[in-house]
Design brief:
The chain is of the alpha+beta class. It has 20 helices and 18 strands. It is 29% helix and 21% strand. α8 crosses α10, α8 packs parallel to α20 and α15 runs parallel beside α17.
Length: 599
């Protein structure tokens, strides 16, 4: 029974039960759950467990359950997660992206290249210097649990009672501590960790660092959830928010928060960043050591063609009005200076996400991963050509991708593959990538294809091919809005990529947009859907699986917007998937319980 409760499926059952309760009953139940978990296995949060993934849950995008988290030893190997290098000006092209499938796909492939870029492990292995794709270094639910619990405990009794915000200093310390969390586990001696690292001898072992992650979040996304804990708790206790609201207010999006160290008379620039009509760009630098000679905001994408629009010194912020593209420039005086630069975009007439402290930062991204075990049999493959896709979409609102149109046995050169310590080998069949570079995200999904240079892989750019290995074998679709606004159903690919043109024509009915993953979106109806319509319901009280079940409440298989209020800023990780809202509620309930109010 204990093992079942500590398993991911057991925790999901507890989480679902908690979310079904009203506010006060939920808190009481969370206290009991925390006490029980602590009694039967406190070490589970440190070392992780489980070798094989549970059967995939056929729901939207990044809400499949995780089963083998990045353990504390693996986090030590990763070190700090690699930040997602977001494109700060892609939003300037929103209108062009909305009306051009070619432009959307080009922007999506660029984001994919940033997500897949190789990042070196923080510590050496027996395989020598080793790299993993950037998204594999990102934080999972276990990382979030460790970081949040560390920062929330350090908040102190008074701060916890007041539900005070987590100061930047506490969050900075918690993230820096996380790679060394293993030091708190006495059973993990230096010799044991050395033996753990010594087993990593080849590429399959390196790929397995982090385990069978289901969902990973970039550092900016993870931090934003943690610092939004008071708002998340309020939503957990107050229940379902309205779908349509008329009230508007100030919304702030963090564009950058970066430590800066400048030598005497040194200079540094960040950006460019685009802010739209009615928005303002605000830059602040808080430092120590010498004095900052100047903080400037320059209108333009490069120093050569930019004009200074704002200049300040010391700790004074700089602020400019959009629309425009701006660079942030820092210059030190006659002594070295260090500190933190923060760049925000402020919009005063926006629908504010009520369950978060503003929308997710520009550098926020998440990746859901669908793994298939090699030993159980061949990998099913799916035909996404124009004719096959047209037949599927015509099969009715409850159509599915089915069990596959064929089978393949790709090797590690053709599909991302890892081998976990038990010896079991897994293939990465699909990925669902979401980045907050646009208001409704770049919603990108990749699936393995036996014909990688046809239809949804026909326009693969050199940046993806240059990554080598398996990454040229995945097809891709993207959605950024609920409606398809491209006047050319073929996306303009008729002459240079006719197989892609045929597939896009089949998917484009002139109304709602389309983007679906054969391996991730397996439930009835999801072959018809897109990513945008599903994610609008995050933290709304609607369960992911309900989105395609009611054609009246969720028309066209949940593809269309039926709300203007996105309380979780379209991120399902709060109330599905990793259930981070429940993680927060459990930790808060634990400290609220008798005898734990003092530090």
């Amino acid at each position: 029974m204990a093992a079942a409760l500590l398993s991911p499926s057991g925790r999901r059952r507890v989480a679902a039960a908690l979310l079904s309760l009203s506010g006060r009953r939920r808190v009481a139940a969370a206290i009991r759950a925390m006490t029980l978990f602590a009694a039967i296995g406190a070490c589970a949060a440190v070392v992780g467990c489980g070798d094989e993934p549970a059967p995939p849950v056929s729901v939207c995008g990044d809400v499949a359950p995780r089963t083998a988290a990045a353990t504390a030893p693996d986090r030590r190997l990763f070190g700090l997660a690699s930040a997602y290098p977001a494109d700060g000006v892609v939003s300037a092209r929103t209108d062009a992206l909305l009306t051009s499938q070619r432009a959307r796909r080009a922007a999506a492939w660029e984001a994919v290249a940033r997500v897949l870029a190789p990042v070196e492990l923080a510590e050496p292995t027996a395989a020598g210097p080793a790299t993993v794709p950037r998204f594999r270094t990102w934080y999972d639910g276990e990382d979030f649990t460790r970081v949040f619990q560390r920062a929330y405990e350090a908040l102190g009794a008074e701060g916890r009672t007041a539900r005070a915000p987590l100061p930047d200093a506490l969050l900075d310390e918690a993230f820096l501590w996380n790679p060394r969390a293993l030091d708190a586990a006495p059973e993990w001696t230096d010799d044991r960790f050395a033996a753990y690292v010594a087993r990593i001898r080849d590429g399959l072992d390196v790929a397995a660092v982090g385990g069978l992650q289901r969902i990973t979040m970039s550092p900016e996304a993870t931090r934003h959830v943690a610092e939004s804990y008071p708002e998340i708790l309020r939503c957990v206790n107050e229940g379902k928010p309205p779908a349509i609201v008329d009230t508007r207010g100030e919304s702030v999006q963090r564009l950058a928060r970066e430590p800066i160290a400048l030598d005497r008379c040194g200079q540094r620039e960040l950006g460019p960043f685009y802010v739209g009509e009615g928005a303002r760009l605000i830059a602040r630098f808080a430092g120590s050591g010498g004095e900052l000679a100047q903080l400037r905001l320059r209108a333009g994408a490069t120093l050569l063609d930019s004009v200074v629009r704002c200049s300040s010194s010391a700790d004074q912020p700089c602020e400019v009005a959009g629309p425009g593209t701006f660079l942030v420039e820092l210059a030190a005086a006659d002594a070295a200076v260090s500190g933190v630069l923060e760049v925000d975009a402020l919009t005063r007439d926006a629908v504010v996400p009520g369950c978060l402290r503003g929308v997710f930062p520009l550098g926020s991204a998440s990746v859901a991963q669908e793994w298939r075990r090699v030993e159980v049999g061949p990998l099913p493959t799916y035909d996404t050509s124009g004719g096959a896709l047209a037949a599927r979409l015509a099969a009715g609102p409850r159509a599915t991708w089915g069990d596959g149109d064929g089978f393949a046995e790709p090797n590690a050169d053709a599909i991302y593959t890892l081998r976990i310590p038990s010896g079991a080998t897994f293939r990465l069949a699909g990925l669902h990538i979401r980045t907050r570079e646009l208001d409704h995200y770049l919603n990108i999904t990749l699936w393995w294809s036996p014909n990688p240079d046809e239809n949804f892989g026909a326009d693969r750019p050199a940046s993806i091919r240059a990554l080598g290995g398996p990454w040229s074998h995945y097809a891709m679709c993207v959605a950024i809005d609920a409606l398809e606004r491209d006047p050319d159903a073929s996306g303009g690919f008729g002459s240079d990529a006719p197989s892609l043109a045929d597939a896009l024509t089949a998917a484009n009915d002139g109304g709602a947009s389309w983007c679906s993953n054969p391996y991730i979106d397996a439930a009835p109806g999801l072959v018809q859907t897109n990513c945008v319509g599903c994610h609008q319901h995050a933290m709304s009280g609607t369960a992911p699986g309900e989105v395609v079940m009611d054609p009246v409440a969720f028309p066209q298989n949940g593809r269309l917007f039926v709300r203007n209020n996105f309380p979780g800023d379209q991120f399902w990780g709060l109330d599905a998937g990793d259930d981070l809202a429940v993680t927060i509620a459990e930790a808060v309930a634990y400290w609220d319980s008798a005898g734990r109010r003092t530090p």
